Amino acid sequence: MTAPIGLVERLTREIVDTIRTQNLQPGQTLPSAKALAERFEVTVPTVREALRRLEATGSVELKHGSGTYVREAINRRILDNPHYVPVDLAAAIELLDARIAIEPGIAELAASVQGDSAVETMETAVDNALQLHTEVPAGHFHVELAKASGNRALHEMLVSLLAIHSRTQQAARFTYDRLRDHDEHADILDAIKRGDGLEASHRTRKHLESIKAAVLADWSEQSAADWSEQSAADWSESTTTEGTEQ
Predict the structure, then answer these.
(1) Which residues lie closer than 8 Å to 99 by C-beta, 6 or more apart?
(2) By the 8 A CB rule, do 129 and 177 touch?
(3) Phi first, then psi: what are they for 61, rounded to 5°?
(4) DSSP letter (8 states) at residue 103
(5) Which of 58, 70, 78, 81 minimizes the C-alpha distance to 30?
(6) pLDDT at position 203 over 80
(7) Binning pLDDT at 50, 70 and 90, where does residue 114 land?
């Protein structure tokens, strides 16, 4: 029997409150499902359902035979919708337009802050562009750039945006040349290290607009190829039909 939705939602909030009250950090474990059930006077299946909801948002991770671990997303004020995962041209352009709207400003802020540790982290993250598969947020240059801005709201916004559209983001990575991506990240970082906010903003915008252009071009090529294949199939079918009719 499934637990009432209201009960699961209440329990989910109480578990989050427990994590924050006890100051549990990412990587630390939660009490067992049985212990949580006893504490909140609910059944173990209800606890597990609440934990699965939190896992879907990236707030915790359930490891079979090991326990439930707190993840970084627990500290975010914007949580992901794991059910919204379209991957098409419209979604890709929507994501890139959103990034073009906010990331140049993030880069300008980062140039004004210039924290030594943040710069060092970004230098390490520059090489992430050479990898086709990169988790968000670990090692992601643009996420580290947002963190370097010193604005928590902007950082969380970008992390959530990329996490929500993770499949679309990954598709864009396959489209864009990895070496070019790396070099453009390095150029952005160079402007930040020099404290040139306007140039950092300009280079970030140009970088994202180039990715958008590549996605559009790739989509056009795929559409043309699909049309050609379909036309060939239609032609083959029509000739077969004509031969049969004759």
Answers:
(1) 142, 158, 161, 208
(2) no
(3) -130, 125
(4) H
(5) 70
(6) yes
(7) confident
